[in-house]
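A reminder before we start the practical. When you read a complex entry, don't treat the lines as separate problems. The point of joint prediction is that each chain is placed relative to the others, so the output describes one connected object in space. Small molecules and nucleic acid strands, if listed, are placed in the same frame. In the example below there are three entries. Take a minute to note the order of the lines before looking further.
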Amino acid sequence: MNKLTKTSRTVAAPVATQACRSVPDAISRRTFLRNSSLMAGGAALASVVSPTMMKKADAAMSEGGGKITQVKTICTHCAVGCGVIAEVQNGVWTGQEPAFDHPINKGAHCAKGASIREHGHGERRLKYPTKLVDGKWKKISWDEAINEIGDKLLEIRQKSGPDSVFWLGSAKHSNEQAYLFRKFAAMWGTNNVDHQARICHSTTVAGVANTWGYGAMTNSMNDIHQSRSMLLIGSNPAEAHPIALQHIFKAKEENNAPLIVIDPRYTRTAAHADHYLKIRPGTDVPIIWGMMWHIFENGWEDKLFIRQRVYGMDDVMKEVKKWNPAEVERVTGVPEDQVYAATKAMADNRPGTFVWCMGGTQHTIGNNNTRAYCAFQLALGNMGVSGGGANIFRGHDNVQGATDLGVLSNTLPGYYGLSAGSWKHWSRVWDLDYEWVKGQFDSGSYEQSKGKDVHVMNTKGIPVSRWVDGVLEDPANIAQKDNFKAVLFWGHAPNSQTRGVEQKKALEELEMVVVIDPYPTVTSVMSDRKNGTYLLPAATQMETYGSVTASNRSFQWRSKVIEPLFESLPDHTIMYKLAKKLGVADQMFKNIQVNGEEPLVEDVLREINRGMWTIGYTGQSPERLKKHQENWGTFNYDTLLAEGGPADGDYYGLPWPSWGTPEMNHPGTPVLYDTSKSVAEGGLTFRARFGVEHDGTNLLAEGSFGRGSEIKDGYPEFSADVLKKLGWWDDLTDDEKKAADGKNWKTDLSGGIQRVAIKHGCSPFGNAKARVNVWTFPDPVPIHREPLYTSRRDLVEKYPTYDDRKSFWRLPTRYKSIQEVDHSKDFPIIMTSGRLVEYEGGGDETRSNAWLAELQQEMFIEIHPRDANNAGIKDGEDVWVESPENAKIKVKAMVTRRVGAGVAFMPFHFGGHFQGQDLRSKYPEGADPYILGEAANTAFTYGYDSVTQMQESKCSLCRITKA
Amino acid sequence: MKIHTLLFVVCLLASVFQVQAANPQSAPPPPPSSLYTSNPGAELWREVRQRDGEVLRGTTQMTSTDAGVLINVSGQLWREYRMQKLIPIAGVAILVVLAAILVFRVVRGKIPIPGGRSGVKILRFTTNQRYAHWSTAILFVILGLTGLIMLLGRTVLLPVLGPDAFSAIAAGGKFLHDYLGPLFALSLTWLFVLFVHGNMPKPGIDLKWLASGGGMFGKHAHAECYNAGEKGWFWLATIGGLAVVVSGLVLDFPIFGQTRATMEFYHIVHSIAAVILIVVSFGHIYMGTAAIEGTFEIMQTGYCDANWAKDHHDLWYEKVKDSAGAEPRQAEVQPGMAQRESTNST
Amino acid sequence: MARMKFYCDADRCIECNACVTACKNENEVPWGVNRRRVVTINDGEQGERSLSVACMHCSDAPCATVCPVDCFYTTGDGIVLHDKDICIGCGYCFYACPFGAPQFPAEAAFSSRGKMDKCTFCAGGPEDDHSPAEYSKYGSNRIADGKLPLCAEMCSTKALLAGDADVLSDIYRKRVINRGASAFDWGVNFNKQKLDLQG
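Here is the predicted structure of the whole assembly.
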């Protein structure tokens, strides 16, 4: 019997990645049989691949191959920040190799990262500027598009004022693009600018920053290797951050670290947990306070840590006392023994890390939840230590960067806020006249603070979660001149926000809708608009370059893999074109070189470095970041510290804060608030942000200080005056003195104050206690409040929501008036939402990737067998999911025990169907994603966080019936 | 001449056993020693198989049939059936039957018409029946041959033709097999309808005929239009044909979400029925062509010789002989009517 | 001689499907053909475990045994490959394979399946290494470059391992020791704590 055997090959060392895929000269032995149509194997393989693309690749290969170039970039999907090595031949992206020496992912990917080459491959993209004319999509040129859009914007500005345009930015912009976007809104003269962080971790940022100074992930995923216990609440990394599990499993297997998962669903992450607590959606505070009850009851708290570095724990203890095991079980559904066991596991095994995601943040009391989580870690003394921390996993690839760069309606880049001082600071950085900047704004005032009128420039804008109300609300009730007349959806899909039915109405009301995105997004199809809609093709992050900030605050440099496809342009180029049309380009790009129409990315980063002193975005120069990119392999997998090599002494990505100027060469801060290292080595204290004393109590740290600190106690934030008082003023150079005089560590553009403070071992922002009582918040100590739409009417009296607010972020915001209506009879099932690993965000991008789309072909709702039987629903049947706000969607029923009885779950990534109607025909030709489905958020309801206006998309009510 | 044929038969029989012994499918070859490495995968999958007896089924994001099945246990059983039972047995059966026919021929020779031809022709098969028979027969032969190529080709043809040529032939054979199969279904149905009336069993006559050995070793017993042997073939072809057609259609149209277990089951049915039909068809073909003088021309022309009829189907002959010699009216030629073999055309 | 095998660590697999899309990516596998798939048992319930399944490159490959045209061959590394030019698309290998590895681009009337396609351990096929013909028919040939299959190289949690069986055994053994549990206590989490899934 003939057995074809290949000549034996030893497993040799990897040959060139430069191996040439050239056509051999040898003629195949089977030429005479090849290519009869029945037998050609190759024909089948070409079916999904676009003929043009396939041809290109083949051409490249058959032309004697092309040299394979390896390009390093970072995955554009989630915030883990996996390294990607793209192989490019003749400008065509032909392959991917695992980035084995990347410190965060070690070459690993999830389904999305492993298929990212599709970005250079897929056909279902917005290919050229498109305009909606009488309901039909028409191709137009870039110039036409920019001119028409610009003219309309100027017209709206004239009639209704600059606040009538909503600039909706993106968590998928690079740092440079995000920064330019925020600057653009300022140049235009509005604070109505926002992005996905609003509906993702805004409550985290607000809650956590108000607890200890910064609102970001405090440690890193790699740092979890040092954890001795791990608690995940409302976080499902198996679907949302798969690479995080690589690190979690390391701790689990090598440290025997118990994994505790708290989630209403028995997720794929929970399946690997040692402790699983199934809570009712929306009961995060009760469960955490319930665990704290055991901590205090058993004296497990870290008393020294609390005494030295925490303010207000007594107030928390008072609240926690109310949450005895019986009450915890009554409200959350979790029995005492489980709560006790999980708490003991964390207490016995320190340091332990605490992770949370949307499950905890997307609530009307989101800011309470996040602060409760912080209090938990503070109580156990798990903060500022390797292996501990509040390891908040961010969402999109650059939501951290976009948040930091202030694409938010309540602040400027670097969380400076919107005070006059902040605007003056940024005007200086931008090298613009402050009065000119102010003059761009509506000169009116629509809000008062402490009896005085507040200028529009200093009032928070409308956040993305409420843009609908910005359009539909009675203008008399809005704290700005007029409603929104135009919205620019710049890298942001609408189906990640709630109240889809009202969104459709709002879209139809607008005078102009502009979508700037590589994909059409659901915006282009969900309304019945016939005109005044523009789709501009943006290039993906694979088609441009720049820096991106991962969830662990590390900066990563992306190199360009391929040229922008079709007629797409990088976002910063589009910004330049539009800025030019609107007449603000000179100001916006004053110190930024523009080549042709593309702003120089490195110059933008340098401007960022010059201005973002608050969070230490100042040390991460383009040069240092590129050096890190070239030397991935020199960074230690456990600590992220480079040991030797060109980046010796740096932490990977110079995790912010990287203090001072790039010349100061600060290594970055891998673990926030870690006093075991000097600040110069990446250590830190808690920020002194809330004053030096409150109600007679000292707010500064007591007896706790960073290693090498010359001040052996707490101290306030540094300013020129403080330096003078300490006698360190003369450590500044003359140039530094000139810039720093009268300034503080945030506004000294020379970086001298920071440099000197660090020289003396001190954190520039002070050394204070973290506060678990945030007296400026609606609920100073976190308490539980039932969701607006709750099925537990018996708990509403004891745990009611807030009173309605007349004007909150410029809009009336309802709470009580919604909760007081009992919907639980007609809508008995608790509805919650979440992620799938194959898709991301609004989903048009990933559902246009054939390799991913094949894996999730239908939108579905998870429903427990008990509820299914009660409603007569069988697995796989079509069902209607109806909300109390008169929305309904038609999806497939997936009957599973993953959710508890009375709870149903939907993934939010689908779009393109609307209330039972298939909208595929409304997409521009050839740009419709392969898979369409109902958007879960069409059926999700009103409900907004009491501090940040975060949407409540983790607990609402619904009714499920057979379709 | 007889001795030569005898020698040939002996050699053939010997080679049958040779093939049997050398059949590599009957016992797996011992693996080379380099294969004895510990494979954690093997242990894992053994564990998987033991967990749930039969087939372990889970969920998966793939939407093809059976994608959620973790391990398909029936596949191994089917493999053993096909490789260790079906192929060797089919091969042997074919050779044995061919040999038996050869022996019979050698020993019995060609069976003549007693008393020679009479010259009188009787209509035995209508045009319709002939067409039905031949279309079914030709399709059967093609299907049988192409089926055998798929079954035994690797053992018998591949060493001779080499992989490329054999693959071309096998591919062509599969193509014919798959497209002609449904046609055979139709043809067989047509055949059944046309021949069923005469083939209804009559135990009284048929059993006596069988007891007498069907005239193979002596004088014929009584027989009507069709004797028990023909009836046996008819019903075997019907039942076996039905089995082969139904199973064949299931196999030929894998578009209804058939699982592997289903396909394996129908393959077993199909292969057993087919091999039986093929092997018995050898007998039928021999009987219908070379075995007996005056037989082959009947299915070609529709007419048989009167003496032939008197010998083999005496009861039928009695019924139809009265019309022997009568001039047939053109429009009313019935089976059983005799027609004078005339040399002068009217 | 190295004996190439796959091993999927069920305690680490989280059904992230990276192995599935990595394979599609590297080998340009069309929609409907699934060389690799992840199967989850006890979905949504205690004891949920996932396994990534593709061709196991068996030492005594059933597919090779039953093929009517003998289009399979085993390389010196133990990788089971086949020749699409010889394959007649009969489907027998699919019936015999315990793991459902053989895939067909079509499932049409008259048993038209097209050429069988399956995981090649990223070792290409009988065509010359790295030729366009090899790539268009079988996908990438990483083995010829001394690399390993991309599915295992990109597995998010390093659950899926590919390589020499001895090396895999070592890796897996180390993990078992760390976990302190029986290697084949499959479906029970490490600390053997009974998880109470209410309602």
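Discuss with your neighbour: The longest strand of chain B covers residues 120-123. What might explain this?
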